[in-house]
From TrEMBL, chain B:
Name used for this protein in its record: MFS transporter
The UniProt record lists the keyword Manganese: no
Ranges that cross the membrane: 9-29, 41-62, 74-91, 103-123, 161-180, 201-223, 243-264, 304-326, 332-359, 366-387, 393-413
Record GO terms (molecular function): nitrate transmembrane transporter activity
Protein localization: Membrane
GO CC aspect terms: membrane
Entry keywords, A to Z: Membrane, Nitrate assimilation, Transmembrane, Transmembrane helix
InterPro entries given in the database record: MFS, MFS_dom, MFS_trans_sf, NO3_transporter
UniProt membrane topology term: Multi-pass membrane protein
Main location: membrane
Gene Ontology terms: biological process: nitrate assimilation
């Protein structure tokens, strides 16, 4: 439930908050990486696919 | 026992992640299951849709149970029940029994509302957006992780995967029960238990704007979960030759490639969700109201316009997926899937940026209605996807015959310049009750 931006008053965040925001950005980076990997696979095929089993 | 809200967030996110992993693990192995039991395309569509059958009613019930019994007990029961059934399904050799057991395991999908309630009980309003974003985004990624990792780890041995996922679910259930706490204070816990009566529920369910938001969530999250279940089978059938020409041979190879392409939508839809919150904030800050018909004078009007924009983008992107598929281009289809994932995240984030603003007195009931009933769309879409004369054309049918009417209804419901939440069915009855 995103409510940030509803108020313009500055709020003092607790220490955990900056780590939380950092994780959110890291997750977006993961999404971009997975998308790039999938596109790379479509162009390079099985030669680019690591198999773990 | 002392605890910290971050610990509660971590427990809720871990439980949700694992529930979503179990929820869509059937889809991740659908090519292998289809090959093992010689399933037709129609049966594949039914298997894909079955993952979501329990969600609409289950989420509403789970939301109520969280308020009544507390999130830790509710979540632990969900994890333990689904885990045990997942273990049982690992030893099943009859397809009809396996189908029934996997429907039971799919109850794991109702966990979303339990964790939303749990996190909301621990975090303050100014940080709830980030906390729920971490919970929802990270947890939802479990579906994509399943599609990406499970076929690589287990190949076609879906029985082993179901066994291990069930065992781990039992451990997480025990952790949730031991370390989970329902709310920050006992008073808050008791307050929540005493709320959410039948009258409040009827009021929210009958509001036009709540129905419009429910349909918006059906267009976004409903589409997300339907694609989670449908895409591995779609790529295997729709791009069989193209994937084989890439060097992926046999059921295992097809499953790995199809799972990787399918994971693109899930990862972008889940992990870009905070981006939508940022865009909603940007519309609000700049005062952008670009769309016709939708209200312009409400305090949150720009957010209504952002959601309207997102819904139009989802409709266009879904249509584009049909066109990309009909063109036969695997590259184009995967690229369009990335765009669909991002537009879906805009829809999901945009919807829940509005819910607390439109229903500040009944956020839980509204979230249960909008987040629960909308998942029924996830049952319908795979059946439409599989029902067309061509496997690619179903996306266009969904966009034209479902999404376009939904968007028109949203524009109509969001047109009111004053108190849109007061417009709905049975308004006179509720007004008489108030008097």
């Amino acid at each position: 439930m995103h409510t940030a931006g509803s108020s313009t008053e500055p709020v003092a965040h607790q220490p955990w908050y900056k780590y939380g925001v950092a994780i959110l950005f890291a997750e977006m980076a993961i999404a971009i990486a997975v998308s790039g990997y999938a596109l790379w696979l479509t162009f390079h095929g099985a030669g680019g696919a690591p198999r773990m089993h | 026992m002392t605890t910290h809200k971050v610990e509660q967030l971590v427990i809720a996110t871990l439980g949700f992640f694992w529930c979503f992993l179990m929820w869509f693990s059937t889809a991740a192995f659908s090519p292998g299951i289809a090959a093992h039991y010689h399933l037709s395309i129609k049966s594949l569509g039914l298997l894909a849709s079955s993952a979501i059958w329990m969600a609409p009613i289950g989420r509403i019930a789970a939301g109520w149970a969280s308020d009544r019994f507390g999130a830790p007990r509710t979540f632990a029961l969900l994890l333990a029940g689904c885990g045990l059934m997942s273990i049982a399904s690992a030893f099943t050799v009859d397809y009809r029994l396996l189908f029934a057991e996997r429907i039971f395991v799919a109850i794991a999908g109702v966990s979303f509302v339990v964790g939303i309630q749990h996190v909301a009980q621990w975090f303050d309003p100014h940080e709830i957006g980030t906390a729920e974003g971490l919970y929802a985004g990270t947890g939802n990624a479990g579906a994509g992780m399943g599609a990406l990792v499970l076929p690589r780890l287990f190949g076609t041995h879906y029985q082993s995967a179901f066994l291990w996922m069930g065992v781990v679910a039992l451990f997480i259930a025990a952790l949730y029960l031991v370390r989970g706490r329902a709310a920050k204070t006992t008073g808050q816990r008791d307050l929540v238990r005493g709320r959410s009566g039948m009258r409040d529920t009827a009021f929210v369910w009958s509001r036009y704007i709540a129905i419009a938001l429910m349909l918006a969530y059906a267009m976004s999250f409903g589409l997300e979960i339907s694609l989670n279940a449908w895409l591995p089978g779609y790529f295997t059938r729709g791009f069989h030759d193209a994937i084989q020409s890439l060097g992926f041979t046999g059921v295992v190879g097809l499953q790995i490639a199809a799972g990787t392409f399918a994971a693109v939508e899930s990862f972008t839809a889940s992990l870009f969700r905070p981006f939508s919150g940022f865009m909603s904030d940007l519309f609000q800050r700049k005062g952008w109201t670009p769309l016709p018909f939708i209200a312009r004078n409400l305090p949150y009007a720009p957010r209504l316009h952002w959601l309207g924009t997102s819904l139009i983008l989802i409709t266009l992107a879904t249509s584009a997926l049909a066109i990309a598929g009909l063109s036969g281009s695997l590259h184009l289809s995967v690229a369009v899937l990335i765009i669909i994932g991002i537009t879906i995240s805009c829809g999901t984030g945009g919807t829940f940026a509005l819910v607390p603003l439109l229903f500040p007195d009944r956020p839980g009931t509204a979230a249960g209605f909008i987040g629960g009933l909308s998942t029924a769309a996830g049952i319908v879409y795979p059946l439409v996807f599989a029902g067309g004369s061509n496997i690619h054309i179903g996306y266009l049918h969904v966009a034209m015959f479902l999404f376009v009417p939904f968007v028109i209804f949203y524009f109509w419901a969001a047109r009111c310049e004053r108190h849109p939440e007061e417009h709905g069915l049975l308004t006179r009855v509720f007004a008489a009750d108030e008097a």
